[in-house]
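Quick one:
INPUT:
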């Protein structure tokens, strides 16, 4: 895996998962706008481009309700998406364990979302935190040792399969909920 930021390569462990689940609920200080769909884009370059390939039509079709959490190092690579939809995950705005401290990112945990998806095949601390702590009806992520403690929609991925197929499966599973929101 070619993650772009060493700090964000922190692996989830039982202690981190317990901290995520014990984090106090966030009051809704997010703007009462129409955001209903959150995609946490992957840190891995290849997965990042594959996610854009699969989800760019979705983002364009549902731009009014979609926000993208984008790793800081990959933020400049997105040219074809409205910058207002992008929320940068900035390394300097994370604590030593990788938990986000940025108020704009933390506000996502107080937003009533229909769907929040962590597109990292191996979930990262900040993206697993945001998806798990969000008030989304569907919290999707990939199968790992701790997935059942973090997500309510778990996608199994085998390395011999294409990640594009997994992303298409995610979209097929969450699309009915997104369509209801729009």
């Amino acid at each position: 895996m070619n993650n772009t930021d060493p700090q964000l390569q922190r692996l989830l462990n039982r202690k981190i998962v317990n901290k995520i689940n014990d984090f106090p609920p966030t009051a809704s200080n997010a703007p009462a706008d129409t955001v209903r769909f959150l995609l946490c884009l992957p840190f891995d370059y290849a997965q990042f481009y594959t996610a854009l390939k699969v989800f760019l039509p979705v983002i364009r079709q549902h731009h009014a309700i979609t926000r993208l959490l984008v790793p800081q190092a990959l933020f400049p690579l997105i040219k074809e998406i409205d910058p207002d939809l992008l929320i940068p995950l900035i390394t300097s705005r994370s604590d030593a364990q990788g938990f986000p401290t940025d108020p704009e990112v933390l506000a996502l945990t107080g937003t009533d979302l229909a769907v929040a998806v962590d597109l990292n095949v191996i979930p990262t601390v900040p993206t697993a935190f945001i998806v798990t702590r969000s008030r989304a009806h569907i919290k999707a992520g990939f199968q790992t040792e701790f997935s059942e403690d973090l997500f309510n929609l778990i996608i199994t991925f085998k390395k011999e399969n294409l990640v594009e197929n997994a992303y298409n499966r995610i979209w097929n599973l969450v699309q009915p909920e997104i369509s209801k929101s729009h």
